[in-house]
Write a structure and sequence with these properties.
The protein has 254 residues and is α+β, with helices and mostly antiparallel strands. The protein is 37% helix and 29% strand. The chain is built from 8 helices and 12 strands. It is globular.
Length: 254
């Protein structure tokens, strides 16, 4: 076995099911609205299970974090109580390295609407960015050491639905969020607000924004975001610089 192969994360067995909305069962037409993913074997002593929906009720997240017997009972009742309008697809197995990254892939491929172009810009820029980041972090052997989809309501306010793409901890707490400078100014403002709340509780926390392009000093919107992020202590790393950032992170969180 090569050194590179030895450093790769072990491939574990998973199974997934798709939650479908079926407006007219007689026509056998449906829309995928969620993914249920379960780790069935792997290096972990405790297997994991996660669900992601287009709209994420807090109840699902809380129930899936309970003891294994309670989770199994809840899923059985959930399937029994689903109406003809909501259906779970048959389970399918797969091999993967990381539950969170695999959830991102399945959600992107099975649930996210098809890519559309408006003015040459992809509608799902952040999904594309997260997919690229998962690939980079996997190659630099840090993907399994990162938290995924980190809730921020503990820093901001109860009920805040925002999640940051990644989190880590090694002496200091760190957070990473993808932001499109080209088309997502509201996301940049949300991240700045969140960073202010995080630093109010933990002034040493590291917050990094991965942007789809490097800030352009001739672009007023880019300049605005750059100053906004600087005022809240947010580091900007463009996608073109993410390989170096991943290697830097790898040296620090091992």
């Amino acid at each position: 076995m090569s050194a590179g192969a030895a450093d790769e994360e072990p491939r574990n067995m998973f199974q997934y099911r798709i939650l479908r909305y079926v407006p007219n069962p007689l026509r056998d037409e449906w829309v995928n609205i969620g993914v249920l993913l379960e780790e069935t074997s792997g290096a972990r002593q405790a297997m994991r299970l996660a669900m992601r929906l287009i709209e994420e009720p807090a109840e699902f997240d809380a129930r899936l974090r309970g003891p294994a017997a309670e989770v199994a009972s809840y899923l059985q009742k959930l399937e029994q109580n689903l109406s003809n309008v909501l259906q779970l697809s048959p389970a399918k197995g797969l091999l993967a390295e990381n539950l969170d990254a695999e959830m991102d892939r399945l959600y992107r491929e099975q649930v996210t609407p098809p890519v559309r172009r408006t003015g040459g810009l992809l509608q799902n820029t952040r999904d594309w960015m997260r997919g690229k980041l998962n690939d980079v972090f996997r190659r630099h052997r840090i993907l399994g050491k990162l938290e995924h989809r980190v809730r921020v309501k503990g820093f901001t306010q109860p009920g805040d639905p925002m999640r940051l793409d990644y989190g880590y901890q090694n002496g200091v707490r760190g957070f990473i969020q993808s932001v499109s400078l080209r088309r997502d100014l509201p996301q940049a403002k949300a991240l700045a607000y969140t960073a202010g709340c995080i630093h109010a509780r933990d002034r040493l926390a590291e917050i990094t924004a991965i942007t789809d392009t490097a800030p352009d000093t001739e672009n007023p919107r880019h300049v605005f975001v750059e100053k906004l992020f600087a005022s809240e202590g947010i580091r900007i790393v463009a996608m073109s610089q993410v390989e170096g950032f991943a290697e830097e992170l790898r040296a620090r969180i091992q």
